Amino acid sequence: MILVGIGSNLSGKVGAPIETVKESLNAMQSNGMKILSCSNFYNTPPVGPPGQANYVNLVVRLSSVLMPHGLLDRLQAIENQFERQRSVKWGARTLDLDVLDWHGHMIQGRLNLPHPELTKRGFVLRPLMDVAPEWRDPKTGKSVSTLWNSLCVTEQLKIEKI
Fold this sequence. Notes:
Blueprint (H helix, E strand, L loop, with lengths): L1 E7 L8 H13 L4 E5 L3 E3 L10 E9 L4 H14 L14 E7 L19 H10 L12 H6 L3 H5 L2 E2 L1
Antiparallel strand pairs: 1-4, 1-5, 2-4, 3-4, 3-6
């Protein structure tokens, strides 16, 4: 199973963040990725520098013949099409496309899989439960629901379905 996290908290060339993430789904399908399922959209607080707007976050489950690094390259090209700027770590962005998992493989290097922050981020875990409730962390074997339930309740309550 291939899982990709999508987020946006800045308006871009196609409009508000929600419009950007909707258009990014079309861009992914035009670039060798078939979306098998899409989570609900969630309004989530930012992680990173203060003063950012909330994010629109979702997760998609997809199929593709692209290998992991090819998928990463294609996703980064789509981010660039949507005017993604990479000036501040965890800063506001028009579009963020993250490979979360690629068929359970563990990879280290330019691409780290599973995504290193995935198990600690409510804004990833909640939508991941929508599209892959059977997913387990390849490193620990923990289920997505176990990981979600290990977050504090105040963290969980900040993740709101749109």
